[in-house]
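Figure S7 source data.
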Amino acid sequence: MPFAEIITLEQFIVDQQSLYKDADGSLSRIFRSIELATKIVNRDVRKAGLVDILGNHGGTNTHGEEQKKLDVIANDIFIAALSKSGEVSVVISEENDDPIFVEGAEEEKYIVAIDPLDGSSNIDVNASIGTIFSIYRRPSNSKMVTVEDCLQKGKHQVAAGYVIYGSSTMLVYTTGLGVNGFTLDDSIQEFCLSHPNIQTPTTGKVFSINEGNYADFPDGVKAYIDYCKEKDASTNRPYGARYIGSLIADFHRNLLKGGIFMYPPTEKTPKGKLRLMYECNPMAFIVEQAGGMASTGVERILDVKPTDLHQRAPIFIGSTEMVEKALEMLNHPEIAVTN
Ligand code: P6P
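Tokens for the predicted 6-O-phosphono-alpha-D-fructofuranose complex:
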């Protein structure tokens, strides 16, 4: 790519900052800290097979899930970077039961929720994994940040993004002015704008769900899965089934190509498996900014009022027409038989 055409993440953030009348550079400083942490985690992910950071850390996270070593390393790196930014008052991490109040920064105006390394069960088998982040502004009426300040609806996010450590390392984010994707050029260690103004297709031919849980799904979900598998050339069915078991990888493919990702309630996970604050909300903000849709099956994800920092939510997310069809069947499973 000719030098003149390279737009780095840094440049893009500064250019976007000028679009906000009250911008003072603080959000940009948070993004720079995320970018630095991402490059360090990327370095460790890329060499994971070569040094002793594969396998389990021996601990468990707030959900009783085994922590892989890279989970813990990524968590430490992002918390340190966000704390050093000087703009973040508190970090909520999937890996920590309690919020991390940043010492000396309790009055700063930003709150960051993060899944430092999502899909970590795929680390040892070299499948794509990723980082997800969600940024809120503190409610102005509170002097010192509180847990209540963190429990904001997803529609109040000021920014959200993810990093996918896949065949290439990409950072995709939104601040409410559309969705843009940046690919890491290893040769210059810069994230370069590669996917400007991402718009997700209104429909698609891919459905993503763990069908191993089929027996546990609500009837409406079963009806929609059966609908996806029916032969009907006029509606491009059967759809393709694609499920990597790494939210970011499944979401990113569907965002670019069209499709629907679902993690419904099951017997084992009656509220779904994915966490609202640092998985569902950031992905919902991104998909809506890209023209897609995200629902719990009952309401818009971004309208859910959190009551717990680590609460889970069912999620149906992706191309609008596919999500709408799924919701129609969730409420009327009987119609699946006729079309
Ligand atoms: P299951 C990874 O552990 C994760 O949180 C998401 O990245 C992924 O979409 C989901 O869980 C996979 O869950 O139950 O299908 O293995």
